[in-house]
C-alpha cells in the first residue's frame, strides 16, 4: 500500500521544483485531454500553446491579458504572505471597474488627464471598499475572510448586472446591457504604436511588481507580514498588530484588483458591461500560488496563465472546443500544484507490513 | 514483562559503528554502545553532540548511513517508529508529539495498534498514571495542558505499551522534586522488571543517582564510558564538554535601585477553560536584583508571562507598572520601548521564527535600535547586530544567514537571550532560561543573567527548576493556583520550604482548593 510519510525537513528543492512539475503535468494532462476529446494531441498542443504567441500581435495580446493578472496577484500575495486569505479579488475588480466607469461617464464631456487620474483613484478605492468589508468583519467580529470575500463576489456580479441594465445603461445602446463607450480622455493610452492593444496598465503592473518586491523584501511592514504568516505567536510576541496586517493584506489586494478593473474598462473594453472580468480575480489566486507569492514569479506565472486564456480562444476557434477549456487547464494547473506541493513536506513510501 | 530467554547479561540493544552524516554536519561518527537488559543507561552530551540523532535512529525516525544495530542479538533495520514500537522500543521526546485538539485518551489511542476501546483505555491510563505517580486526566484536551502535563501524557503513553527499551529525552526538566523522585522510582521499578532505559539528561546529579552506566558523546563521537556512581558531577562534566565546568559567581547583593516592575493586585481571567486565573498578584522587582518565581507548571506561569509581556492585555493599566509607567494596556512593542525585555519559554515559533534567518530574527524585537530607515530595513545593520549577538553569546551556528530552526535548542536560546540583552533592557523577564539546554550553555546563560543584574538591570526569572532559581536569585517567590506567595530573601528560605509552598501552602486558609495542583 502506498502512503505519505512526513519528511524530517521540508524539501527546499521541491518548493521550487513543484511549480515546474505542476506545469509539466498540466501539459501532459492537456495532451490526454485533447486525445480524450478526439483531437490530435500534438495538433491541440500547437493550437493551444504555440499558435497564440507565434507572432508579435499574439505576444502583445499575451501582455494585455497578463496585465490584470500581475496587478491582482501581487496585491493578493501581500496578504497571502501573512495568511490573510482574500478570495474575493474578482468582486473587488468588478467594483473597481464600476467606480472607474462612474467617473468616466460623469466626465463624458471633459478633456484632460484628470479624468484618467480620477478613474485610477476611483478604481483603487472601489476595490479597497469592497475588500474593507471582510477586513472590518474579521477584525471586529472574527468572521472568516475567505467566506465573506468570496460571497461578496456574487454580490458584486449582481450589482454590476443591475447597473448596466439600469442607471449605467447606454441610452442609445438598443437596450444592450452595457454602458456608453468611453470618450478618448477616459481610455488608457497605448504603449506601442504598432496597433497592439497593450496600454499603460502594463506599465502600472510592472511598477506594482517592483513596488510589491520592495514592500515584501525590503520594508519592515512586509517583514512583519511575513513573520505573521510563518509564526503567528512570534508576531504577537514581537507586538506586531494582527489587525493592521489583516487591513493591509485585504486593502492591498482590493486596491490592485480595483485598479485591474479600472484597466479593463478603460483599456480593451472601453465601456462597462456585466462581463467586466474574465475570471481574472480567481485566476490570479492560482498565479500567486504558482509564483510562490514572489513578484518575480508572478510576472512569469501571469504570462503562463494569460497563455491559457489565449489558447482557450484559439482552441474554440480552430478546434471546435468550448472556451471553458481554459478553465479546465487552470484547474489542472492548480490541482497539480497542490498535489506536488504535498511532496514538499511529505514523501511517498511503499508500506510493508511490519511483523508484529 | 519480557519473555525471551537469555541470561541477565544478555544485550538488549547493541550499536556498532553508527555514523550519520547530514549535508552540513556529521551528527554521529562511529558510535558504539550496548544496553543490557534491565539497565538504566545514560547518554550524556552537550547540545549538538548528536544524542538526539542517535536516539532517532534507534527509534526509526531517521536511518544511519553506516553501522549496524542489533536488537536482542539480531541485526535489525528499524524502518519507522511503528516498527520500533513493534520491537518493543518506546520513546519520550523532548519535543512532544501530541495532537492539540484531541484529548489525552484519544492521543494515546492514536499511538496504539488497532482500534482500542476509549473507555477501557482511559481506565488503563488512570491506573498506569497512578501506579507511576504521573497524574493525568484522560478526558482533558491536550492544548490546555502545560508542558509538564504533556510530558506525563507522553510517558504514560509509552508505559502502556510495555516497552522493553524506553528512551527518555530530558524527561525531568518540568517536574517538581517530588515528582522527579516518583519518576525515578518508576524507572527503577521498570528496570527491575527487565525493561532497559536509555536516559538522556544534562542533569548530572540525576544521572548519578539513577543510571547504572553512562556513555558520553562529544561532537558526534563517543568520548568515554563511565559508571556514574564512581564519578563526580564535575568529572562527568569535564568528560562531556572537554574542559572544567564554570560555576556562576554570585556577587554580594548590589545596592537596590528603583522599582522597575510593580504588579498591583493583578487580576486576569484566563480565556482558556482549562487555564489558571491570576488572582491579586502583588510583586516588585527592583534594579539590581533577580527575583525568581518557582512553581509547578500549569499554576499560572503562562498567564502571568502573557500579561507581563503584553501579548495579552489586562483591563487595569495600573496593575502592571514597568519602569514607572502604567503599562497594563500597552502592546509588547510599546512595553519594549519602555524598557522591557522578554525571553519566552517557547523558542521556536514565539521567541524566533523557525524558517527565518538569525538576521531576520534579530529584527523581530531589535527594530527600534536604529535598524529602519523610513520603514525600510537596513540589512547591513541587522546583520551586524546578529553577528554581534552570535559572537558575544557564543552561539554555535553556520552564520547569521542560517535559519533559526537549524540551531540546537541551547544555541537558539543563547541567541534569543543575547538579542534581548543587547537591547539593554531596564527590566528583563525570562521564562525557563535553561530548559533543555546543556550544562555548558546553561552555566553561560546563568552567568549572563547575574552579570546583567550586577549592571543594575532588574530581572524576573520564572523557572520550574528549583536548583537554578536557588543558584541565581536574590529573592524567591512561588506561584500556585494563580496566586503569588510573598517573596523571601534567599538566605531566609530553603528548597524544602519553597517545595512546600509550591503546593500553595504559604498561609493558613489559602490551602483549600490548591491541593489538587500539588504533586506531593
Distance between the termini of chain B: 29 Å
Q: What is the number of strand segments of chain B?
A: 23
| Shape assignment of chain A | globular
Overall average pLDDT of chain A = 91
CATH architecture title of the largest domain in chain B: 3-Layer(aba) Sandwich
What is the makeup of the main sheet of chain A? 2 strands, antiparallel
Q: What would you report as the Rg of chain B, rounded to the nearest angstrom?
A: 23 Å
Share of helix among residues of chain B? 25-40%
Order of helices and strands of chain A: EHHHHHHHHHHHHHE
The CATH homologous superfamily of the largest domain in chain B is named P-loop containing nucleotide triphosphate hydrolases
Low-pLDDT runs of 5+ residues of chain A are: none
Biggest sheet of chain A, strands in spatial order?
A: 1-2
SSE layout and pairings?
The complex is a heterodimer of chains A (356) and B (520).
Chain A: E1 2-6, H1 12-36, H2 41-50, H3 56-80, H4 89-106, H5 114-141, H6 145-165, H7 200-218, H8 220-230, H9 232-238, H10 242-269, H11 280-290, H12 295-319, H13 325-345, E2 346-350
Helix pairs in contact in A: 1-2, 1-13, 2-12, 3-7, 3-10, 3-11, 3-12, 4-5, 4-6, 4-10, 4-11, 5-6, 5-10, 7-8, 7-12, 8-9, 11-12, 11-13, 12-13
Chain B: E1 11-21, E2 26-36, E3 40-44, H1 51-58, E4 66-71, E5 74-76, H2 81-87, E6 89-92, H3 104-111, H4 118-131, H5 147-159, E7 165-169, H6 177-192, E8 196-200, H7 204-210, E9 213-218, E10 221-226, H8 233-241, E11 259-268, E12 278-286, E13 290-294, H9 301-309, E14 320-322, E15 325-326, H10 332-337, E16 340-343, H11 358-366, E17 372-373, E18 376-377, H12 379-392, H13 409-422, E19 427-431, H14 439-454, E20 458-462, H15 466-472, E21 475-480, E22 483-484, E23 488-489, H16 495-501
Parallel strand pairs in B: 3-8, 3-9, 6-7, 7-8, 13-20, 13-21, 16-19, 19-20
Antiparallel strand pairs in B: 1-2, 1-4, 4-5, 9-10, 11-12, 11-14, 14-15, 17-18, 21-22, 21-23
Overview of this protein structure:
The complex is a heterodimer of chains A (356) and B (520). Chain A is mostly helical and 356 residues long. Chain A has a domain at 66-292. Chain A is built from 13 helices and 2 strands; from the N terminus they run βαααααααααααααβ. Chain A has helices at 12-36, 41-50, 56-80, 89-106, 114-141, 145-165, 200-218, 220-230, 232-238, 242-269, 280-290, 295-319, 325-345; strands at 2-6, 346-350. Chain B has 520 residues and is α/β, with parallel strands linked by helices. Chain B folds into 3 domains: 11-241, P-loop containing nucleotide triphosphate hydrolases (Rossmann fold); 260-339 and 426-520, 3-Layer(aba) Sandwich (Rossmann fold), CATH 3.40.50.300; 350-424, no CATH class. Chain B contains 16 helices and 23 strands. In chain B, strands 13, 16, 19, 20, 21, 22 and 23 form a 7-stranded mixed sheet that branches. A 6-stranded mixed sheet of chain B has the order 6-7-8-3-9-10, with helices on both faces. In chain B, helix 6 (177-192) links the parallel strand 7 and strand 8 (196-200). In chain B, helix 3 (104-111) crosses helix 5 and helix 11 runs parallel beside helix 13. The longest helix of chain B is centred in the middle third of the chain and has 16 residues, at 177-192. The radius of gyration of chain B is 23 Å and the shape is globular. Chain B starts with 10 loop residues before the first strand and ends in a 19-residue tail after the last helix. The A-B interface holds A 5, 8, 214, 218-221, 223, 226-227, 230-231, 233-234, 236-241, 352, 354-356 and B 61-62, 79-80, 82-83, 86, 113, 309-311, 331-336, 342, 344, 346, 349-356, 360, 363-365, 367, 372, 375-377.
